[in-house]
Amino acid sequence: MVVLRRALGLVLVLMGLANAARAAEWVQTWGAAPLPPSQAMGPLPATPGFENQTIRQTVRVSVGGSRLRIRFSNEYGTRPLVLGRARIALADAKGEPIPGTEHEVLFSGQPGTTIPAASPYLSDPIDLPVKALSSLSISLYLPQATGPCTCHGTGMQTAFVSTPGDFTARTFKLKQTVELRAFIAGIDVQAAAGARAVVVLGDSISDGVGSTVDANHRWPDLLADALDKDHGAWGVVNMGISGNQVLSDGAGQSALARFDRDVLSVPGVHTVILFEGVNDLGISYGHFEGPMAAVFKTLATGGKATRESLIAGYRQLIARAHARGLKVIAATITPYAGAAYYSEEGEAVRAALNSWIRTAHEADGVIDFDAAMRDPAKPTQIRDGYHAGDHLHGSDAGYRAMVAVIDPSLFK
Predict the structure, then answer these.
(1) What's the rounded Cα separation, in Å, for the pair 323 and 17?
(2) Which of 20, 181, 287, 307 is the most buried (most CB within 10 A)?
(3) Do residues 188 and 267 make contact, with C-beta atoms less than 8 angstroms apart?
(4) CA distance 235 to 221
(5) pTM of the full predicted structure?
(6) Helices (H), 155-234
(7) pLDDT in the model for residue 197
(8) Does the domain spanning 193-411 belong to CATH 3.40.190.10?
């Protein structure tokens, strides 16, 4: 009997340790896909660099947790990135650090580090509990010239760049503001047992172009709001890249090329939403004129996007996700008649691809964003009020309409 009691006690201890281990798993709660630097193109400025400056950035998490860590990126840097000091705090509605919540970010116990060229980098765990849908302020001091940064170019959030000096722990002296994510690629949290992440693989529509800056009105943000109300315990990781394509490099690597890094490597990933293709169509079939015409022609590196080639690309992504045990949700491509690169040829391919997404049942679920956004009287166009004036990107109202058609049962 004594032996039996001891054996039972050991089993209970082991079960407790196993439960604790499950509870301590890391789940990504925020993300921004890193991009290679680019030269100035028309109205778009070249990727900036920084030297002896502090950058203060605000991010809003989705799922909360008891501790967190920051995922940095120098993946497109050609030189080591010297990170002199980093500091994180909870942020108020204006993005200002909340006094008393500041924590120094350490790397192997040290206050700074050097991130090798072409490398990602994780911070040490930080004992800063964070609630779901709360905001964080991250300050980075960059003492040496960084060269053009590994940044996410479409931040839709104001970031603050200082005058020369380290302002991570003292009153910030502002030189300029920018709207990009500089050297930060993700936030992981130690969440409650059962927490999972859904990754959005998308383009500028997922990046939130057209939504209100500093308001967290991108449709993945609104999805995080909805999941927190209905189910909780979901990290929503937005890996949209403005201009991105399924088949071709150009605005970042293609979806096929970046899938392992931006989806399969995400801690706690359970589900991926595939919502790309409109740029493949616009770049393949658009009729371009003027100084930007030559630039757009260089972006079709994967060849002309056809119904067959796009379906083949989707099948590759689905197969790679399924091989890792992920659930795949495919979203129909939204209308774009009236956009600068619209063509009837591209529209025909969009209609055919959307038909395949709806009927093939090769993904595990479907979100019909086309139905949510199209004008009933002109189904090749986004309805008035739902686009940002360019007939391509959503407005705040349009992004709300997209989330309204997402079936919550897809996340059960």
Answers:
(1) 29
(2) 181
(3) yes
(4) 10
(5) 0.93
(6) 204-207, 219-230
(7) 98
(8) no
Query: Sorting pLDDT into bands at 50, 70 and 90, what band is 45?
Result: confident
Residue 298 confidence class, pLDDT cut points 50, 70, 90: confident
In this prediction, residue 301 has a pLDDT band, given cuts at 50, 70 and 90, of confident
3-state DSSP of 92-147:
CCCCCECCCCCEECCECCECCEEECCCEEEECCCECCCECCCCEEEEEEEECCCCC
CB 208 within 8 A of CB 398: no
Provide the token pair at 87: 């500091």
Nearest to 405 by CA among 366, 361, 369: 369
Residue at token pair 């009105």? 217
- Residue 394 CA to residue 402 CA, distance in Å, equals 9
Average pLDDT over residues 186-215: 97
Query: Strand, coil or helix: what is 88?
Result: strand
Write the Ramachandran bin of 348: left for phi over 0, alpha for psi from -120 to 50, otherwise beta: alpha
Give Cα 173 to chain centroid, integer Å: 29
Placement of tokens 């010239």 in the chain: 145
Q: How far apart are CA 245 and CA 255, in angstroms?
A: 6
- Structure tokens, 76: 């497109």
Concatenating the DSSP letter of every residue in 242-267 gives TT--SS--BSBS-HHHHHIIIIITST
Phi-psi region of 345 (alpha: psi -120 to 50; beta: other; left: phi over 0): alpha
**Rounded distance between C-alpha atoms, residue 253 and residue 258, angstroms:** 6
Tokens of 239: 């890996």
Task: Compute CA distances 137 → 33, 225, 257, whole Å.
Answer: 19, 20, 31
Return the domain boundaries, the chain. 27-185, 193-411
43 pLDDT more than 90:
no
